[in-house]
Amino acid sequence: MAQKPSIPKGTRDFNPEQVAKRNYIFNTIRSAFETFGFQPIETPSFENSDTLMGKYGDEGDRLIFKILNSGDYLAKADSDAYDEKDSNKLTSSISEKALRYDLTVPFARFVVQHQNDIEFPFKRYQIQPVWRADRPQKGRFREFYQCDADVVGSDSLWQEVEFIQLYDTVFKALKLEGVTVKINNRKILSGIAEVIGASDKLIDFTVALDKLDKIGEEKVKEEMLSKGISEEGILTLQPLFTLSGSFESQIESLKSILNNSEEGKKGIEELAIINNAIAELGLSTATLQLDVTLARGLNYYTGAIFEVAGPKTVQMGSIGGGGRYDDLTGIFGMPNMSGVGISFGLDRIYLVLEELGLFPETVNKNVEVLFINFGKKEALYSLKAIKQLRLQGVNAELYPDAAKMKKQMNHANKRNIPFVVLVGEEEINSNTYTLKNMVSGEQSKVSLAELINFVK
Known about the structure:
By secondary structure, the chain is an alpha+beta fold.
């Protein structure tokens, strides 16, 4: 017996219902992107290896899927590396291309390569799959989609304001309430590290601070001490551990903590401008919240940092995030190109909508009418009506074979098709159709115009 086929770990098949639900999310996000003036681009699924390698750190490099060169890839292999079984050296000689790890680095390459054709500021969105050679686990896949939007060529804070509104617009359209857009600023974290004398330990400090909700104040202090942050510095941080309340009250508390840091004060000013604008403009469903422990992407974010949390009723990690960067294109020799971008976590948003029952019943655009096939003459008569139904936007089809009627009716039931049309000699002679409601069981003879109106 032949072995049952399978797919690689960390990948997934999607059935028609799942694809319809994913497309519902894609289309909602895409519509919002375009409403806000973002333009679509697409980049190849694979890039030259030197475009990707070295851009994500050692850990990221290990997770990039390499593509073997075409043909006899060992013919040009580094013989010394081959003999020494040095995989790092060998890889560069047998693999010149790799699957993209994210959409950000390919976007940076796109901007630099097409800079003479781009009108800046450039607002782009991209919805495409990415690949990571990660260890598969719940909610983590080797192939998944990213939904990104970025603006490059502007350092205006109005972009951050618009991105918060963009998140709000998408989640309102998805009818997802209770979403929190958390915001912080790299300059505030740098300022805090400065006032406690730990500027050289910014990453250690923020990694520890980021665990405040998970391990508590005392454990965070212990970790900071173990990383060489002084007791005096940690004492200065004390107001930070209990920082709460409204956005405005937290801003006031930060002003006293960061009074001696120009960098920190600049971060406070930027957050205040964003918050004041959002307060004036209002949000429909999301809430803006200041979170000074937020430190995601600290290696490349230089200003605002975003993270989006779903409703508290659903146990789920972040469903979006992003931030401001000052030198996205510098890695490709085009310095000082400021930008800001966000991403939507499609798979997690899907799980949240599924758990809360928020997918519309109409998301599965099913066949609405199935014509029973009684033979060649009846089939041709039916296809003429099907053509007219389709022109009116009705999903209709003919059962392909003149099988037993019971089999065809069971087919309609299994596919949840709400209407069935029966056409026999009598219907052809009277130029009518017998329409059966599969839910109520009622059936009636109708003209083509009546059939179209009834189903529509």
